[in-house]
Amino acid sequence: MTPSVRAERPFTSANGYLMAAVGVGLITIGLASLVRGVAGIGGLLFALALLGGGTVVLAGLYMLQPNTSALLMLFGEYRGTDRSEGLRWANPLLVKRKLSLRARNLNAPTLKVNDRRGNPVEISAAVVWRVRDTAQAVFEVDDFELFVKVQAEAALRHLASQYAYDQGDDTEVESTEVTLRGSIEEVAAALKTELQARFADAGVEVIDAKLTHLAYAPEIAQVMLRRQQAEAIISARRKIVTGAVTMVEAALRGLSEREIVHLDDERKAAMVSNLLVVLCSDKDTQPILNAGTLYN
Questions:
Q1: According to the model, what pLDDT value does residue 134 have?
Q2: What does the mean pLDDT of the chain come to?
Q3: Which among 5, 23, 167, 254 could disulfide-bond with 58, CB atoms 3.0 to 4.6 Å apart, if both were Cys?
Q4: Sign of the CA dihedral with 213 first, then 218, 221, and 222 last
Q5: Confidence (pTM)
Q6: Are 121 and 215 in contact (CB under 8 A)?
Q7: Residue 226 burial (CB < 10 Å; 0-12/13-18/19+)?
Q8: What is the distance between the alpha carbons of residues 105 and 50, in angstroms, rounded to a whole number?
Q9: pLDDT in tens, 58-67
Q10: Cα separation of 296 and 279, whole Å?
């Protein structure tokens, strides 16, 4: 049987300023009675009762700053959470535990994990979170701050194993693949969703989550750098060749349409070869002037 989750319930406290005035008034009246003199044991007991009552009233005062709450418990029983601001009053027998509701930052340590392809990577993230349900944060987990830290590291490890660091070979299938390096927004959204699912038991809300560090592990960093450089060179060469073929095709079409020169298949092949060498070469070409005929 799944145990029920204790949820936060509101607690209505009294105005602290009014109760402070009541407490001070009772103490003042009691002191005045003692100073004037009391008539018999009854008068003395009445003055002492006033002093004790004023002290008890003042003992129930507590102050809450903005975005701060107080969990109130009576003999170990949870009575509610007060989110009011300013000076408040509640039964002095209630134990009041204050809990911040402000946003907090968690800088996860840099973790070394394997991505979806098995490559070791270093990854870290910054998580912005805050307490949403005070009762769950205090009563459902032993230490909600430690819980958040441990679960954030676990979520980060799981996230890294679900995605590849970068795209592999340029194929149509992998061109739309979500990767850690190339899909920042998608990865951040996935991280936030997983963190929220893990933090739900502790009554914690994830405000934002972003990767702060992402790199290949040192042992393969140089190899992967050379791989990326090779991919960049191949991609650039592919674009150069595509452009060169388009320019050669346009040149042959222009010569043919304007009837500037008539070339047979062999001479067209030679012209295409020469133009591709000139257009695709990464070094300056040296032109050679032909003083003879087209065929010599």
A1: 93
A2: 82
A3: 23
A4: positive
A5: 0.69
A6: yes
A7: exposed
A8: 49
A9: 999 999 999 9
A10: 24
Q: Of 234, 227, 233, whose CA–CA distance to 164 is shortest?
A: 227
- Specify the DSSP element, H or E, that contains 44: helix 40-59
- What amino acid is encoded at 128 in this protein? V
C-alpha triplet 216, 222, 228: angle, nearest 5°: 80
Q: Give the Cβ contact number of residue 99 at 10 Å.
A: 16
Residue with tokens 């004023």: 54
Which amino acid is it at 122?
Answer: E
Task: State the amino acid at position 30 in one-letter form.
Answer: G
Q: How do residues 245-291 score in pLDDT, each as one tens digit?
A: 787 777 777 767 766 666 666 666 776 776 666 666 666 666 665 55
Residue at token pair 């134990």? 95
**Residue 79 and residue 11 in contact, taking contact as beta carbons nearer than 8 Å:** yes
* Token pair recorded at residue 292: 């003879």
β-bridge mates for residue 105, sequence order:
128
Phi–psi pair at 224, nearest 5 degrees = -70, -30
Longest dimension (CA), the chain: 142
User: How remote is the C-alpha of 178 from its chain's centroid?
Assistant: 18
For the chain, what's the residue count? 296
Residue 84 and residue 107: Cα distance in Å, rounded? 31
Burial class of residue 109, CB neighbours in 10 A (0-12, 13-18, 19+): exposed
- What amino acid is encoded at 249 in this protein? E
Q: What digits encode the pLDDT tens for the residues 140-168?
A: 999 999 999 999 999 999 998 888 887 76
Q: What is the DSSP string of 132-197?
A: S-HHHHHHTSS-HHHHHHHHHHHHHHHHHHHSBSS--S--TTGGG--BTTT-HHHHHHHHHHHHHH
